Amino acid sequence: MTNAQLDIPADEGRIPEMSAEEVARHSREVLAEHSRSFNWASRFLPEESRDDAAILYAFCRLVDDTVDEAESPEVATKQVEALRDELNRERAPSAAVAAFLDLSERRGVDVSAAMELVEGVASDLGDVLIEDDRALLRYCYRVAGTVGLMMSPVLGVEDPRAVAHAIDLGIGMQLTNICRDVLEDAQNGRVYLPETRLRRAGISQKELLESVATGGFELEETVAKVVSDLLKLADRYYDSADQGLAYIPARSRLGICVAARVYRGIGVRLRYLHDANPLHGRTVVPGLEKALWLGPAGRRFAMSSLLKPRPHKAHLHRALAGLPGVNAGPSPKPSPFGT
């Protein structure tokens, strides 16, 4: 997201005189322009959380665009360094960063999670080849799990046990993104499907890149098998997120139920409408289908109001050891009563 997207004067990105209402309005515009799914789901958040969620999204969009929209890797590297300095308060912040820092003070958002987000996005500089599941999950944590970590206080979550489940929702969503965007990513020299999984299926990342470059479709079936397996992995993280929904205050919970169901719907559509083949192009959930996901979201909301949250399964975070907010310790022994 550039300063132009925030209607900010071209003063090297330094923060101008903007009221809180103007910052919130511009952030809502960024959300509406760049994420139809999240913008749609945000309508179900309470008003006091809606603007802060938009400010957080606008900041995350800025971080993402710092790399994706840069003129060159050299420019992107300089912009990433500037972002780090702004978050560390070592230079005057841009409007989006200033709004985020204000949010972090008001809501208790962990700035270390924002720094991990910056590191994750910076890893997208140049060609990307993910080696194995550990590298994949750590990447997903950095670029999306951190968003769940930062979003929790915005939603009014107070129980620290909620954090691990919030991270898992972000990871599930990012795995969905990766499965949806295989073609587009490969066209940009990036393969997030782990080499270990592709090798087990009988191909390599190099072969996938060559096939996409030549417009060949001979690898569709093999790639679809890998994507299908990764969507199953995403389901495990979505399920974990569901198990922590009760930690979210009821007024904010419905919005998260909607967001989770609509985003999970991308994987459902990819799996059942396109046989998990991402090489056909980008899978998009149309508006009517999003509306249909309101039913499952409402049922999950009702269930979460009746059931207690379940302990987080620590094995989901074993690959994330050492990162902020993760639960990489031993899982509790299963109850003989199945609860």
Summarize the structure.
The protein is mainly α and about 350 residues long. Helix content is about 65%, strand content about 0%.
Helix and strand topology:
Layout: H1 20-34, H2 36-42, H3 47-68, H4 73-87, H5 95-107, H6 111-122, E1 128-129, H7 133-154, H8 162-180, H9 182-187, E2 190-191, H10 195-201, H11 205-214, H12 220-243, H13 250-273, H14 287-292, H15 294-306
Parallel strand pairs: 1-2
Helix pairs in contact: 1-2, 1-3, 2-13, 3-4, 3-5, 3-6, 3-7, 4-6, 6-7, 7-8, 8-12, 8-13, 12-13, 13-15
What do these coordinates show?
The chain is mainly α and 339 residues long. The protein has two domains: 18-109, no CATH class; 127-325, Farnesyl Diphosphate Synthase, CATH 1.10.600.10. Helices cover 63% and strands 1% of the residues. The chain is built from 15 helices and two strands. The protein has helices spanning 20-34, 36-42, 47-68, 73-87, 95-107, 111-122, 133-154, 162-180, 182-187, 195-201, 205-214, 220-243, 250-273, 287-292, 294-306, and strands at 128-129, 190-191. A two-stranded parallel sheet has the order 1-2. Helix 1 crosses helix 2 (36-42) and helix 12 (220-243) packs antiparallel against helix 13. The longest helix has 24 residues, at 220-243. The N and C termini lie far apart (45 Å). Mean pLDDT is 86; it is low at 1-17 and 332-339.
Order of helices and strands: HHHHHHEHHHEHHHHHH
Count of the separate structural domains: 2
In helices, the fraction of residues equals 55-70%
**Total number of beta strands:** 2
Strand content: under 5%
Question: What name does CATH use for the topology of the largest domain?
Answer: Farnesyl Diphosphate Synthase
| CATH homology superfamily of the largest domain | Farnesyl Diphosphate Synthase
Largest sheet: 2 strands, parallel
Shape descriptor reads globular
CATH class designation of the largest domain: Mainly Alpha
Number of helices: 15
Structural class: mainly alpha
Low-confidence stretches: 1-17, 332-339
For the biggest β-sheet, the strand order reads 1-2
Roughly how many Å is the radius of gyration?
A: 20 Å
CATH architecture of the largest domain: Orthogonal Bundle
Write down the oligomeric state. single chain
Mean pLDDT across residues: 86
Protein name: Phytoene/squalene synthase family protein
InterPro entries: Isoprenoid_synthase_dom_sf, Squ/phyt_synthse, Squalene/phytoene_synthase_CS, Trans_IPPS_bact-type, Trans_IPPS_HH
GO molecular function: geranylgeranyl diphosphate synthase activity; squalene synthase [NAD(P)H] activity
Organism: Bradymonas sediminis
